[in-house]
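Lecture notes, part 5. Sequence design as translation. It can be helpful to think of inverse folding as translation between two languages: the language of shapes and the language of residues. The source text, in C-alpha cells, appears below.
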C-alpha cells in the first residue's frame, strides 16, 4: 500500500490496534536509523571543514541525501549552523557564515523516508578548543539524562520536561538555548495534524502529559532536542533524536 493513502486512512481511523502502534514505532525507528547513517556519511566525507560556507554544506547534504539515501522530501529546512549561528534556534534565519579554523558547528536534519519523518541533530568541534569539545561530549549525556527522566515519569507534562532539561543543563555548567526541548514526529506531514501547536512541543506553555494520545487517539512520538550554550554565550551545540527510540 502506498504510504500516502496509508496516512489518510489512519487519519480517519482512531481505533488502531496494538500491532499498528508497534509498527508505527518500528517505522519511526527505522527512519531515524537511516537519518543517523546520513549523518555518519556526512562525517566520513568530511563535509564539515574550515573554509566551507553553511550554505555550501547544506547543499552538499541535499544532494547526498537524494543520491545515496533516496530522500525526496525534508519535513523541515536543512539546518547547518556555525559560530555565533549555533546560538540561533530552528525558527531563526541568521546571516550565513563560513566555518572557521576553531569553530562550533551543528546540523539539524529532517529527512523523510517512505513518508516517515526523521529528525536528527549532532554537533562538531572544529579545531582544538577544549570547551567546544567538552560540549560535543556532553550533549548526548544531557540527552540521555532527560530521556531517562521522561521515561521514568509517565505523567510528566511538556512544561515539566522542559524545566527538567533546563535544570540538568545548568547543573552541568551550560545554559539551555532552546525555546522548546522537542516536538511531535510521525507520518509526513505531522505539522498539519489537528490540535494546538504548543501542545505538540516540549515547552513551558504545554501543561499536558506527553503521553496523552494525539488527535486521532494514537500514541504520540516525540523528538527530544538538547540545545546547550556555553557559559559566556559565545557558541552553542545541538543534539536530537527520538525520545522513545532504540
Amino acid at each position: 500500500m502506498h504510504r500516502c493513502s496509508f496516512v489518510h486512512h489512519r487519519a480517519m481511523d482512531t481505533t488502531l490496534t496494538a500491532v499498528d502502534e508497534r509498527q508505527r514505532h518500528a517505522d519511526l525507528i527505522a527512519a531515524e536509523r537511516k537519518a543517523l547513517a546520513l549523518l555518519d556519511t556526512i562525517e566520513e566525507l568530511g563535509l564539515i571543514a574550515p573554509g566551507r560556507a553553511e550554505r555550501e554544506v547544506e547543499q552538499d547534504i541535499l544532494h547526498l541525501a537524494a543520491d545515496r539515501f533516496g530522500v525526496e522530501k525534508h519535513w523541515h529546512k536543512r539546518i547547518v549552523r556555525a559560530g555565533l549561528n549555533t546560538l540561533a534556534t530552528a525558527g531563526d534565519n541568521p546571516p550565513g557564515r563560513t566555518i572557521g579554523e576553531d569553530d562550533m558547528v551543528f546540523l539539524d536534519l529532517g529527512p523523510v523516508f517512505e513518508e516517515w519523518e526523521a529528525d536528527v541533530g549532532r554537533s562538531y568541534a572544529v579545531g582544538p578548543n577544549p570547551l567546544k569539545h567538552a560540549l560535543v561530549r556532553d550533549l548526548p549525556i544531557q540527552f540521555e539524562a532527560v530521556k531517562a527522566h521522561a521515561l521514568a515519569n509517565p505523567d510528566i507534562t511538556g512544561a515539566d520536561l522542559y524545566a527538567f532539561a533546563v535544570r540538568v543543563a545548568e547543573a552541568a555548567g551550560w545554559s539551555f538555548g532552546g525555546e522548546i526541548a522537542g516536538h511531535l514526529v510521525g507520518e509526513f506531514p505531522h505539522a498539519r495534524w489537528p490540535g494546538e501547536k504548543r501542545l505538540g512541543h516540549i515547552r513551558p506553555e504545554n501543561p499536558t502529559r506527553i503521553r496523552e494520545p494525539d488527535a486521532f487517539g494514537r500514541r504520540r512520538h516525540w523528538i527530544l532536542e538538547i540545545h546547550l550554550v556555553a557559559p559566556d554565550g559565545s557558541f552553542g551545540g545541538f543534539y536530537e533524536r527520538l525520545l522513545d527510540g532504540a
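The translated text above is only one of many valid answers, since several sequences can fold into similar shapes. Strands lie at 73-74, 79-82, 103-109, 111-113, 116-117, 120-126, 175-176, 182-185, 221-229, 236-242.
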